[in-house]
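Predict the assembly for these two chains.
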Amino acid sequence: MVILDNYPSGLIELIDRKGVPENKIRLLAKCDMNRDKVHCDCFLIATGEELLIISGIMTLSEKRGVNKHLAQTSASRLEATFTELSYECHMLSDLSDFTVEEMLSSCRLTAKSESVGGHILLSAFTNTSKSQMNLFCKYIKKVKDGEDPELDEDDSKATRFCPKCGSRYPDKDRKICPKCMDKGKLIRRMAVFFLKYKWQLAVILGVLILMSVLGVLSPYIGSAFYYDEVLDPEGDFFGEILLVLGMIIAMRVFSVLINIINGVITSKIAAEITYDLKQTIFGAIKRLSLSFFTGRQTGGLMNQVNSDANTIYGFFCDGLPYFLVNVVQLVALIIIMFIFNPFLAAMSLVTVPVFVFIVKFIFTRLDKLHAKHYSSSRALSGALSDVLGGIRVVKAFSKEKNEVKRFNRHSERLAENAKNLSNFQNAAWPISDFVLYLGNIFAWGFGGWMVIKGELTYGMLLTFIAYMNMVYNPMYFFMDFAYWATDCLNACSRLFEVMDAVPDVVEAEEPVRMENMEGRVTFKDVEFSYVKNRKVIDGVSFDIEAGKVIGIVGHTGAGKSTLANLLIRLYDVSEGEILIDGVNIKDISFADLRRNISIVSQETYLFMGTILENIRYARPEATLDEVIEAAKIAGAHDFIMKLPDAYATQIGFGYKDLSGGERQRLSIARAVLRNPKILILDEATAAMDTETERKIQSALERLVKGRTTIMIAHRLSTLRDADKLIVIENGKMPEFGTHLELINQKGIYYKLYKMQAQALKSIGIEG
Amino acid sequence: MPENNIPNELRGIVDIVYLNRDNCKITEKNGFIGLRAVLDKSDDDMTEKEPLEKEENEKDDGDSKKKKKDTPAVETVDLGNGKVEKIAERIFLSRAFPFDMPYEYISVLDRDKKEIGFIRSLDDFDEPERTLLKNELETKYYTPTIKRILQVKERYGFSYWKCECEFGEKTFTLRDTFRSIIKAHTKDGRERIYILDIDGNRYEIPDVEKLDRMSYKKIELYL
């Protein structure tokens, strides 16, 4: 029995009344709409013979007689009743070919019905139910075949839903429920990282506490002590002004010293910790498989990692210590104030709640305005770099005026938002200052009255007011701190995601060392899919003898490059195996596998640096002679020598811009220098003119002797020298053989060949 | 063919088959729509048929392939004098400008996602065919309307929404809120937004200005 979703108990009674007892159920699934696109709970229940489709509305109510506080889960506390909306019953034998038809924002489940003679609609549902309905199709096939299937581990609800709160993971590959994420655990885990620096951190904390003690002390000496003990004839230290001045100066000097010490230590460990953090992060990144980078929104995630390191550092080294210090200072201040004079303390703190309320409002509003300002400034710089990057197109279509207009529009919006922001700031802060000032007035008023009545000394009043002003600063900080903490948690969770991600292509535990490969490549029933259930490669088998040249032909998107990616294990096959010299590539050590195979892919990537460095990238220890030879083989030497700085020319972002063909030639040179046993050329010469391509090919021909070469191309002339050809279509391999064999087969290759020959014929060249 | 007010300098270079009430009938069977159309004969109708079927016979059959073998996606009958009749049991519709012009510029595809023709506007068809087409479009581009936004919570890169839709309360999750909100404009210049949730479902707010103040304030930031 396979139960794919929760169902109300009322449902079982209902189908029981329809003559289907509970024990006959073999499959139960739920989707969120019925056939008429009405949102409801629609259950699909299959027994051995029938398929029931019942839609209705599930309502939850408190169970009677169950103690709310004792019941652990919502299921034991709530009772679900079910009101039927529609019901239909199909014979399973009548239906076949269950399919989830994906439309755009909804899907429908259809099946072929013998009695109707065509497809019928079983149910509609939104994309939310799509994965469950795909499972339904998988299991209903088994039910129809007479089985009583069991639920596979992978398909159970637990893998998709948070076990704690029952809501679905936002990202099914990332089993983190944002609602239930243990924030404390995140912080603790992060703290472990900082514990390495515990002594330095303790020193910083100590220094900060010392500073705040000094801060609390200085108003007392400056006011209460000075007025009441030194200036007052009745004071114990009457007339000793120099003593007070000396104390004040000493304190100042001391605090300057402490500040310097603090600054030195902080900047020292700041650099160390950020370096350490970034190293950990990038160390984690480079361990990951390619799919982690190409999949999901991780591209953006990577970019964020850098700024995340700063956020985390800022929180732990600036935020947290200041937070502690502020807490200490605030508590100390309030206690001191209440000890001095509880009545005055209470009176002067009356405005604090109002102040907190106003500042909170200001912060929320400011946040929104800042976000708007940020997004418009981002839009402006985006528009600017867009225009500058595409300046050739802009000029070619003479659209300069429109672009100026577009720029002005963004610029206007930015100005508008900036104006709003500063207007608000200009109004908001004086108001909050005013509220703060009101507190002062209270203190002056009540305090003055108390001084006249003799209940308070003048110096005490001044100290009091100084303290009161000090109370407000931590308040500002605390309100900001909440945002700071959220930011940091966010950064931590992203960081741990990168650190915890398990690479899906892993090296075997005891890899086979194969320093020298012969280069025999065998694909055995290889299947592969980037996304589950959508096969990109489907049952491809072939065998390439060492030292042969193999051409792979096929339409764009047929899966040619995927084959190459599988061979160098950027991805792992989902079914079947790939062997090199008879050894499964999963068992070969990464170092050997990648040293023996070189790939020149469609997307050439050149790093920032000189041409020499770029060619040498594959083998940094190569001699200069070797580099030049490799460049010659790749046909790159001539154009390199025409550049004023030749091999020392700086390329990459912001430097010399090479053409597509030139870039390809450099990457071929890079691969050649590696001197691999297996060379993969994935459309490596597509951006070159035919003559250059010929030249490189004849050079490569000499090179590839004794080497296995896999050439991927859609231009058939590129594959002229291939010993054997593989035709790939829709991930399958319908044809495999020599050029002549394939021509005689009159299949896909023949068609392609004829088309390209015709194209040549039409311009007067016989193919 | 519908008249175009703006001179079309490219007209006649490629053939676009426009479907309308004169050359096409929309049919309905088991809740799915199909068509019968009388069209000018094109080169495609002749050449591509033969090898395509041959190919399929060679291939080993999975479940989906069997379906194709039964009947061709489009049955083409030569009527002579340069006309053919095309009969498709099932057709699929696709909007060319899904946000701004949901009922104009509709591509009509056959089972194999090959274009049979183009509908300039649903107004080119009479009832009940127009309703059939409209229903099919509305099923495919199923987009509930949001009436009120009850709550928007942003947390750890995802935002959690609680909204009141035409059919009741709905909660959904967005990934990358800014990019999940698509701004479009109606013909009369009102701002209309589409919200894409994490599953790929779509929700619509037909007129942002008409939202109540509390709802508007919750999404103001993203607009």
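Chain B has six helices and 13 strands. Helices of chain B lie at 43-47, 49-58, 63-70, 129-140, 177-180, 213-219.
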